[in-house]
Amino acid sequence: MKTLEKKGYCVYGEWRESKSGKYVDITDSSTGEVIAQAPRCTPEEVDEAITSAQEAFPGWSRLSLSKRQQYMFGWREVLYAHKEELAELCAKELGKNIREARGDVQKAIEPTEEACALPAMIQGNAAMQVTTQYDCATYRFPLGVTAGIVPMNFPAMIPWGWMTPLSIVCGNTVVLKASSQTPLTAMKIMDLFYKGAGFPKGVVNLITCSRVEADILLTDERIKAVTFVGTTGVGKKIYSKAAAHGKRVQAQTEAKNHALVLEDCNLEATVNAVINSTYGCAGMRCMALPVVCVQDSIADEFVALLKKKAEEMKIGCAYKEDTDLGPVVSQAHKDKICGWIQKGIDEGAELILDGRNVVVPGYEKGYYVGPTILDHVKPGMSVGDREIFGPVTCVKRVKNYEEGIQIMNANPYANGSGIFTQSGYYSRRFVMDTDGGMVGINVGIPVPTAYYPFSGNKESFFGDLHVLGKDGYHFFTRAKTVTTHWFDDTSGAKKVGTWEGSVEH
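The chain above was modelled as a monomer; its predicted structure follows.
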């Protein structure tokens, strides 16, 4: 009988066995097989991770910009060299198909490349002779120890793309709380960080634990910033608690992205984009497109084509190359999605395509949900307003642009939004009118590259500075403004006023 591997936690650059005795099963989502277990680290072990990061901070933060940049150049090469291995692991533990898993890893590499721009991006501002013989300059400095609280749905991108590269290149050290459901990819990258790239011990540390132990990251005075991705309810609590303890916070939370499809759109191209954005990653991403507001005049045609293309998708094992739609992450998550589908029916939506009873031959115990379409979703139906996080499309029929934008903006979430039209006029109006923080014009997934911020709005984000881009550099640094004045031979005879050097008449 195969012995089940019990994973550990990483501090001081080494893996240690947890003393908790409590473990969470990690499954192969395609087969339902338990493949490993993650520890529920004790409060003492969480403290150990913070201490490791705190002790590593002085030496790491004092390295030159050039030296930290060189580490990131090397780290990029290590990630590329192991991209396929990491993608396969991601596909296995999460369920997104192998091509999507490669994208997950690529989106960890992209911010690492952005971090290589450190010497240019971290530059401050300076001016001489701001007032007579006084100069001013602003510099950016690292914060200290930062913490990342990771969801299950992007095991590579979120911990090792969003939460780590910009933090460490700015001179901080990191404690990652990986998802207990999908920690294997993050753990493998953790291995490579030290063994492959040779980073100083303790610069990044990794734990798995419950929310109870994770609370330590929100209150410990050594943690200076917290970045979180997860549900809105938890995000609000994290933002409130961490901020109350003097920390800066990024909380990326739920979404219910809407697209507006106007009658002049390229219909087939639009449906292709909706298929990709709604059913990609089995809908388990905050930039999925689960709601489509379709103009009445083309709604029947749109729904018919959407159903046809959805039915053509191959559902299967995540790590097979020909799979279009892999499983969801767990049986519990599958049950939750199926419950939402039934709720939509109960609320009065018309079920056009039902993905609840999908069986994949040879993988009968996997957590599969097929493409699902609910039509005639009306305002007030919770299925059209709440995040389902699965491969479910809700179609809301609208008379015109005005009704569509009104319905879209009535939603409490505003991560992303899109419009499909050939009209420059309506595209321009949409950019100005939509509440969505990331906007697509004939783009189903308007996620920007790492050089721009991931800029959710409303109930989709809590904080002041977003993930990545210039916002990311500013989030992970603090400003110091330095005023300089050099005395000359006459300085001793001059009187100094209250506003020394800052005002001049």
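Residues 258-441 form a domain with the Aldehyde Dehydrogenase; Chain A, domain 2 fold (CATH 3.40.309.10).
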